[in-house]
Design a protein that fits this description.
Helix content is 13%, strand content 44%. It has one helix and nine strands.
């Protein structure tokens, strides 16, 4: 009798998880099935915050107004909290307009991480001043 109650409760819990949209992260990628959280960073907001859940994909869209001669680098990130799932990819703007760079992360465990981006020359040349920078506090919840 106890086994029947146990299996009934187990089946009820699984059905509730499926009906409410809770899905376990993929064993291969660690990503859940919810749409990616996209943050388009703007010069007006150099420091910001975002909260995601374990398994969420977090995509940053960074302005790349100086073209491919400059690249975005990740200066700091806690990979135990956020695992980088793509490289920084530059996409030129339409009709000679300013381009953008994108990079994605997957939330790994409940914690916080500061992600800092710096815009630097692609050839490694030294600059007198930092061209551009962003700081984002990412909180990962269950």
């Amino acid at each position: 009798m106890n086994f029947r109650v146990f299996f009934f409760c187990l089946a009820a819990g699984a059905a509730a998880a499926v009906l409410t949209g809770c899905a376990a992260p993929s064993a291969v990628t660690g990503r859940n099935m919810s749409p990616a959280v996209v943050m388009t960073l703007t010069p007006e907001e150099r420091q910001t915050t975002v909260t995601v859940r374990i398994g969420d994909e977090l995509q940053f869209v960074l302005p790349a107004n100086r073209g491919p001669a400059f690249v975005w680098q990740i200066v700091s990130n806690d990979p135990r909290c956020l695992r980088q799932s793509s490289g920084v990819v530059f996409a030129p703007g339409a009709a000679g307009g300013a381009g953008v760079s994108t990079v994605s992360f997957i939330a790994q465990r409940p914690s916080r991480s500061f992600i800092r981006f710096a815009y630097v020359p692609a050839n490694g040349a030294k600059e007198k001043e930092l061209v551009d920078a962003y700081q984002i506090l990412v909180t990962v919840r269950i």
